[in-house]
Amino acid sequence: MNRLSRFSGPILAELLLNFCVSLVLFRLLGKIADAASGATGSVNSLFSLFNMLFLGLSQAGGIMIANACGRGNDQLAARQRGSLLLIFLITTTAILLLVSAGRSFLVTQVMGLSGNSAEYAMNYCRIAQWSLATQAIAQFMTAIFRSLGNSMLPFLIALINSSLTLTLLWLLPDYSAALDISSIEWIALCQLSGSLVALLISISVFLLFLHAPVELPSPGRFSGMEFKAILILAFAVILEPVSYSLAQVVISRFFAELGDAALAARAYAGTISVIPSLLGIALGWGAQIQVSYLIGSGQLDEARSVVLRSCRLTVVLAPLFALFIYLNAAQLVSIFTSDQSVIIAAKILLGCFVLIEIGRSCNTTIAPALKARGDAAFVARTAFVVMILVSLPIAWFLSFPLGLGILGLGLTAAFDEILRGWLNLKRWQRVDS
Fold first, then answer.
1. pLDDT for residue 433
2. What's the pLDDT tens digit per position in 61-88?
3. Are 291 and 373 in contact (CB under 8 A)?
4. Burial letters 372-388, b for 16+ CB under 10 A, else e
5. Distance between CA atoms of residues 146 and 154, nearest Å
6. Do residues 94 and 132 lie in contact, with contact meaning Cβ atoms separated by under 8 Å?
7. Minimal CA–CA distance to 274: which of 44, 75, 17, 7?
8. What does each C-alpha distance from 81 to 203, 236, 339, 377 come to in angstroms?
9. Number of other CB atoms surrounding residue 153 within 10 Å
């Protein structure tokens, strides 16, 4: 367990810092208006879908480049870095054009926002889209660092990003009037500043201290096979997180149809409810690293033991922590808002999160272990089928035809997590036997 703690400790520290940034962010947004919080949460659901694409490209490219480095083929590694960079630049430019040119369509038609919520969302997008671009290039740098065997550097740069963003949001006065922008645009500008500084640091470190050539494709040296290999592997990697993000975009649309109070309640409850899951996520990622090592060394029984210990711990602690949050929901949500309709709606969602954590705490430990066992395809297929084909229709039916509203959305989220957790656990037991 001590070895697992060493792996998971830094991950947990980063997750806690990200939570602090979210807490301050929605505290400031709540001071503007509950509609601003709901709009920002809705936009971030859409942005997370794009971020999953960048994450998949980063992981796939890192794997391909590391493989070339491991074989001592430095020329191939340089070409793959160049190919990956070109893919990132094309994808980032396309998404920037989509968000810039279609901002109104995305906000009003895709996300279903209207009135003040739509105005807040479009103002936030105008600045935040550039944060999306910087985060995309940061994912490229992460792939390069990890392919060179340095996993600590991306972690430290992520800490710099979160720390700087938190400092700007917490300590810096609101200069929106002086810059002739709205308060929500000022908040987005603080986020952009943090991510931009972190990106510049990572580029500087790469150029000054790391000797890894990048060979951009040219007409005479273009290899479609290298592009194809990265994209195929990226598709396999991102199917699960993209399924989750796509489901969240649709769920955001459902919340928008229920009104501004429901949107704000989702943003506040989602921020608070992250706390119980942090331990499971950290232990799951740490266990994934350990399981990969133990399986590689032939220690299958020890690998099984690591996963089951972390799973038992999170399945007990996370729901209890979620229950504690639910019992204190009114006081916690009042940090962000004084609107009683929002507080009541958030309390309903936090009650559902007690059930959600039963499944999510299992998923955050078992799913990474399955991926480490080489069973990522099962995790991805299960996520797509359960989230998209099963849970979304149930969520719509419970919330609208059946009239349960946000309670229906919350119960469906719990059903989704518990079903996937059970299926992943059964798969682990079958593979392990």
1. 47
2. 877 787 777 778 888 888 888 888 988 9
3. yes
4. bbebbebbbebbbebbb
5. 8
6. no
7. 17
8. 14, 20, 51, 26
9. 20
Give the residue among 184, 198, 166 at the shortest CA–CA distance from 29: 184
Which residues are CB-neighbours of 373 under 8 A, at least 6 positions away? 291, 295, 428, 431
Start-to-end CA distance of the chain, whole Å, equals 23
pLDDT tens-digit readout, 255-276: 999 999 999 999 999 999 888 7
Residue 307, amino acid: V
- Distance of alpha carbon 9 from alpha carbon 284, whole angstroms: 11
Kindly indicate the confidence band of residue 331, based on its pLDDT and cuts at 50, 70 and 90: very high
Q: For 355, phi and psi rounded to 5 degrees? A: -70, -40
The secondary element (H helix, E strand) that includes residue 230 is helix 224-258
pLDDT value, residue 405:
95
User: pLDDT tens digit string along 206-261?
Assistant: 999 887 888 877 665 556 676 777 777 677 667 778 888 899 999 999 999 999 99
Q: How far apart are CA 342 and CA 26, in angstroms?
A: 14
Question: Residue 239 has which token pair?
Answer: 């199917």
Residue 100 one-letter amino acid: S
Whole-number Å distance between alpha carbons of 309 and 304: 9
Residues 6+ apart with CB under 8 A from 123: 182, 184, 185, 188
Is the dihedral angle over the CA atoms 101, 102, 108, 112 positive or is it negative?
negative
Per-residue pLDDT band at 279 (split at 50, 70, 90): low
Taking the C-alpha atoms of residue 382 and residue 384, their distance in angstroms, rounded to an integer, is 6
Structure tokens at 418: 């518990």
Q: Which amino acid is at 366?
A: I
Q: What pLDDT score does 411 carry?
A: 96
Domain coordinates in residue numbering, the chain: 1-31+259-433, 33-238
Burial of 263 (0-12, 13-18, 19+ CB in 10 A): buried
